[in-house]
């Protein structure tokens, strides 16, 4: 039961954030500072969520670290998202199978 | 065609069609809907893979397939959902959940404001209530790049195909997470993070500010995990993200002339 309360909270807050500015307050944000903060938020959120959690994502730190390194290298060379993700996973799987 | 459309609606008196400069006939509406679908196809493919990773993660965090799909259908956002699943798994509080979602998704408010400047007159309040549900980074980026005013039906086109991709990917990921052998799903735990890395690294190469935001947020998050572990996961993410974004906003404010897709 509680889990649906969590989901309801998530969904409600997320919807209100999306809906209110498009319906009720349609004021434009002029502050360059606030715009800048909001511009950086997605990147910093994704980064904070990825590190250090990614090292525990496979349930085994060494295989996750090896996979993460592969992901970082491929992302650095701008490989498509799906290639980066699959290669990281495949590396972790190979590592687990070999060692 | 237009005339017929007009007459039929007037006749039944069900919908008031505002006659200002123009009215949109069925042909145009259909065309706009499929134009939206077309624009949404790349989003569909991207969402299919990202939400597959989310489905895996949700199952690995102890959620059921139904719960994972329900979260995707009601939230339609990647970062917020991942943080949310983390909070559910660690039995965090509802206030923590609400605040985390608020901070992580606050950018959608800005997108909504910027989008509402481009909406067509026919975008009534009712349509705004409905279409605002579908504001995501990708849908916003595609919609805002249109030259002409945006029609509701066009938004529904992009949103519906993206929504299907997001839901379907979650379902497939959750099923894979429940059915595949553990050794495979363990490795698949990296999928979503791999995609996150693919999102944050290329712009970090190009922009100093983004690099700084990414590096600082990772550093703060590591400090929270190992040194300040009494702070729960959701709060650790939002504090790390806000602190690094504020620092970067001060050091590298964005150029307002080039309208960045926030």
Structural write-up:
The complex is a heterodimer of chains A (99) and B (262). Chain A is mainly α and 99 residues long. Chain A contains 4 helices and no strands. Chain A has one domain. With 262 residues, chain B is an all-alpha fold. Chain B has 11 helices and no strands. Chain B is globular and about 60 Å long. Chains A and B meet through helix 1, helix 2, helix 3 and helix 4 of A and helix 2, helix 3, helix 4, helix 5 and helix 6 of B.
Proportion in β-strands of chain A: under 5%
Q: What's the β-strand tally of chain B?
A: 0
Radius of gyration of chain B using CA atoms only: 21 Å
Number of strands of chain A: 0
Order of helices and strands of chain B: HHHHHHHHHHH
Rg over alpha carbons of chain A? 19 Å
Shape of chain B: globular
Amount of helix of chain B: over 70%
- Calculate the mean pLDDT score of chain A and round it: 92
How many helix segments of chain A?
Answer: 4
Structural classification of chain A: mainly alpha
Poorly predicted ranges of chain B (pLDDT <50, ≥5 residues)? 1-21
Number of helices of chain B: 11
The number of domains of chain A is 1
Q: Ends of chain B: how far apart? A: 40 Å
Biggest sheet layout of chain B: none
Helical content of chain A (DSSP H or I, runs of 4+): over 70%
In angstroms, what separates the terminal alpha carbons of chain A? Answer: 42 Å
Q: Estimate what percentage of residues of chain B fall within beta strands.
A: under 5%
Biggest interface pair, residues each?
A-B, 73 and 101 residues
Quote the average pLDDT of chain B.
Answer: 88
């Amino acid at each position: 039961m509680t889990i649906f309360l969590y989901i309801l909270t998530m969904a409600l807050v997320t919807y209100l954030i999306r809906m209110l500015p498009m319906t009720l307050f349609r004021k434009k944000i002029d502050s360059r500072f606030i715009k800048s903060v909001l511009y950086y938020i997605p990147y910093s959120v994704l980064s904070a969520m990825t590190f250090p959690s990614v090292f525990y994502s496979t349930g085994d730190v060494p295989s996750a670290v090896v996979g993460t390194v592969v992901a970082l290298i491929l992302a650095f060379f701008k490989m498509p998202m799906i290639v980066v993700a699959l290669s990281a996973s495949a590396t972790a799987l190979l590592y687990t199978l070999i060692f | 065609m237009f005339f017929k459309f007009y007459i039929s609606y007037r006749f039944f008196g069900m919908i008031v069609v505002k006659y200002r400069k123009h009215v949109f006939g069925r042909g145009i509406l259909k065309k706009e809907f499929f134009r939206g679908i077309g624009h949404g196809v790349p989003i569909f493919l991207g969402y299919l893979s990202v939400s597959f990773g989310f489905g895996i993660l949700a199952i690995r965090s102890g959620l059921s397939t139904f719960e994972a799909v329900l979260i995707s259908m009601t939230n339609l956002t990647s970062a917020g959902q991942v943080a949310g699943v983390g909070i559910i798994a660690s039995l965090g509080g509802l206030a923590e959940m609400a605040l985390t979602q608020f901070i992580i998704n606050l950018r959608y408010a800005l997108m909504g404001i910027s989008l509402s400047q481009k909406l067509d007159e026919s975008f009534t309040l009712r349509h705004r209530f409905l279409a605002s549900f579908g504001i995501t980074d990708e849908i916003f980026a595609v919609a805002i790049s249109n030259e002409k005013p945006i029609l509701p039906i066009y938004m529904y086109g992009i949103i519906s195909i993206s929504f299907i991709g997001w839901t379907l990917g979650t379902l497939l990921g959750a099923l894979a997470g429940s059915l595949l052998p553990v050794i495979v799903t363990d490795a698949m735990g990296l999928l979503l993070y791999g995609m996150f890395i693919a999102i944050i690294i290329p712009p970090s190469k190009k922009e100093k500010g983004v690099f700084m935001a990414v590096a600082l947020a990772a550093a703060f998050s590591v400090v929270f995990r190992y040194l300040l572990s009494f702070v729960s996961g959701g709060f650790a993410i939002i504090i790390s993200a806000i602190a690094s974004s504020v620092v970067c906003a001060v050091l590298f404010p964005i150029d307002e002339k080039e309208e960045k897709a926030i």
